[in-house]
Design a protein that fits this description.
The protein has seven helices and 14 strands. By secondary structure, the protein is α+β, with helices and mostly antiparallel strands. The protein folds into four domains: 2-72, no CATH class; 76-202, Tetrahydropterin Synthase, Chain A, CATH 3.30.479.30; 205-289; 291-327, no CATH class. The strands form five sheets. Strands 6, 7, 8 and 11 form a four-stranded antiparallel beta sheet that branches. A three-stranded antiparallel beta sheet has the order 3-2-5, with no helix packed on it. Helix 3 (142-157) runs antiparallel to helix 5 (169-187).
């Protein structure tokens, strides 16, 4: 009887252990994928992967001995810093040189993200030797990314002069972003979203000289603007003077034409008057039979009457109603 009880107890323990083993196996077959991660199914037993990229969050059945290799969906930021004993302060900046040989310190950061369509290619190129909570070891991707970006940006900076860094930094930033985008897309299967060069430190003597040069250029620009304004003012004054000249000439011509017409009218009136008087005196001479000398005397006495307001008749002066002979 005791032997039977012992067999039953052993069987119960075996069943319990089997159930526990099944539960453990089943529990290890399920893996949670976070909403902010991509996942690749990695089989630790065969050291292989299932070439399917999981992007839907939630619980997934992968199987015993499987786990997710995780890649973030969110945009990542990397700061380019100086490393090694040869770096000068500050060490949070990239130390390089310009095209004209001057040392320059750049504070650069860029944003990138993983391309889900090429995560399998990324895994095969940089197979992680180990994982940290399912994430690839930093030495397999991030360090390669940092070294690649540092070398590329250092080389890109050498294509530009110190003055260009001082005066046209956006152009340099755009060129660096284009080169970094091409290189990371080709070699690391990463997508660069943006790049910033937030600080540029050049030698103090150069910055002082550049500041003086810019101040001189601004003074030149201000003088040129003032010259252009004065030219515009002078041109306006010339236009006003020309308009005034045209108006003065027009008024003078109008006045001259008016006076000429008045003079012509006066000449015409005088001519008509003289002709009329000549005609009248001619008729008078014929009517009364005056000789030429007598007619001229009459005309002279008649003009005296018109000029003095006194009336003369044949050499006699009429004054106060009394007729008397004048000398």
């Amino acid at each position: 009887m005791a032997e039977k009880d012992g067999c039953r107890a052993a069987g119960g323990v075996c069943c319990l252990l089997s159930v526990i083993a099944i539960i453990v196996v089943l529990s290890t077959s399920f893996h949670q994928l976070d909403q902010l991660d991509y996942g690749i199914d990695y089989d630790a037993i065969s050291a292989s992967i299932d070439e399917t990229v999981y992007s839907e969050p939630g619980m997934h059945t992968l199987g015993v001995g499987h786990q997710f290799i995780l890649y973030p969906k969110t945009i990542q930021t990397m700061d380019i810093v100086c490393r090694g004993d040869s770096c000068s302060e500050p060490r949070n900046r990239l130390q390089t040189r310009t095209a004209d040989g001057l040392g320059v310190s750049l504070k650069i950061s860029f944003q990138y993200r993983y391309d889900p369509t090429r995560l399998i290619d990324l895994y095969y190129r940089f197979k992680p030797a180990s994982t940290n909570n399912g994430r690839p070891d930093r030495n397999t991707i991030s360090e390669v990314l940092e070294n690649t970006a540092t070398a590329l940006l250092s080389q890109a900076a050498t294509n530009y002069t110190a003055y260009t860094f001082f005066s046209d930094l956006p152009v340099i930033t755009a060129a660096m972003q284009i080169r970094l985008t091409e290189r990371l897309d080709e070699q690391l299967f990463l997508l660069v979203e943006s790049l910033q060069v937030t600080e540029v430190d050049l030698p103090d003597a150069f910055e002082t000289a550049i500041a003086d040069s810019i101040a001189a250029q601004q003074a030149i620009i201000a003088a040129e603007r003032n010259r252009e304004n004065m030219l515009i003012t002078f041109e306006s004054q010339v236009l006003v003077a020309n308009q005034t000249r045209y108006q003065t000439i027009a008024l003078a011509q109008g006045t001259a034409n008016r006076r000429r017409e008045e003079a012509d009218a006066s000449v015409t009136v005088t001519t008509q008057t003289v002709l009329s008087e000549m005609y009248s005196y001619g008729n008078l001479s014929e009517t009364v039979g005056l000789s030429e000398a007598g007619g001229l005397s009459y005309i002279w006495w008649d003009s005296q009457t018109a000029n003095t307001g006194k009336e003369y008749l044949s050499g006699l002066l009429r004054s106060d109603g009394v007729m008397r002979t004048t000398a």
